[in-house]
């Protein structure tokens, strides 16, 4: 049988890092098994709908490189479209399908109408709590006759439809990560399957859809593990084959609680906006809950597709460590194509008001060199603005204490003079020019080593450390160097 997996997000407006990992594992598993990865939109909770959420979510998935060929897709024109034979893939467009299936359950006696008001249900729960019982539906409407039900419907009474669980029955299922799970129906509730607004609940829709879409493996977050017995029971009463369940451990904060917004960035979009590269984010989160057979850490998507296996998904959650993510991102920044990095970083400069888009285009080569010069020092590309600010100002913006001390050395006035005459004599300052200039100064003036290199850096940048000095001088260019040399004289 063809392996078919799905990622089934609710369109809440953003993609949580944990959801991206769920999607990724589904995607990887489908690739490995030569199967299909489907994306289904679960929008049965109409109160939580957010305008444009599906589009935003699909764009984030595309950015991350976790794209689906079936289900709800985004095309090259950024339009949301549904692709595949087993649709519609948006639950709110499947209401007829749920109606038909709930009727089947009502007819076979596996579901019933419930007319209990919210007030009544609240009271029942309150009493149960006061008696230290787990709150659950007390079965008040289970025994209504067909006629009683019809009379209430005719009278316009609102109702939901509940699942009719048998008493004292063990529900078994096997989870690839958790092993065998058994729950007794006495510890379960008569779950609402259809709400009074005519929409199915998640629990009902998910089973109907996964079956009709021929999903073979359900790979999702462990928060759904307690719901799985209800789903398994529905498969049983429908007479459908149970899929393979795989519940992934949560991604945790450093305090070992579930990763949440309160502790910093958790949305894929937050990371994109800061200038994280998708390959870094993917590489990092792939390892938060799955471990490869050896100690390899760096994985491209293609390598993940080959190496991934459900058997090596761990039971306990990985702690999200932004420093580790930064390490991965820095690794990929060091290797990435410079033009690509500049394209990602320029909007940050424009945002900071350091350049206009036009100027960035005109001076593209300059920005490429700037990127090459500073990239090793960056955790994410938003930092580019701050790293190159020193090359964009006419004067040294900040003098380090140590640099000021260095400026008092006796060879500095002569070095300033020589630099000035050599730089003024050239048409353009390039890396080759700077290298040649240093050779000349060593020979002609006898200024060498730290005195020469650190001296030049201090004179022109006010700092004792920084990127390679020929690159720094090239980036500053003749005009800025001239202004800075003049200023440097005043720092004596
Ligand atoms: N719509 C559910 C969610 O938002 C999907 C759960 C599942 O994969 O079954 O997480």
User: How would you classify the quaternary structure?
Assistant: single chain
| Net shape | elongated
Q: From the helix content, strand content and strand pairing, which structural class follows?
A: alpha/beta
Would you tell me the overall average pLDDT? Answer: 95
Major sheet attributes: 4 strands, mixed
Provide the helix percentage. 40-55%
The percentage of residues in β strands lies in: 5-15%
Number of strands: 11
Radius of gyration (CA) equals 32 Å
What's the N-to-C terminus distance? Answer: 80 Å
Helix segment tally: 20
Low-confidence stretches: none
Strand order of the largest sheet: 1-2-3-4
* Molecules bound to protein: glutamic acid
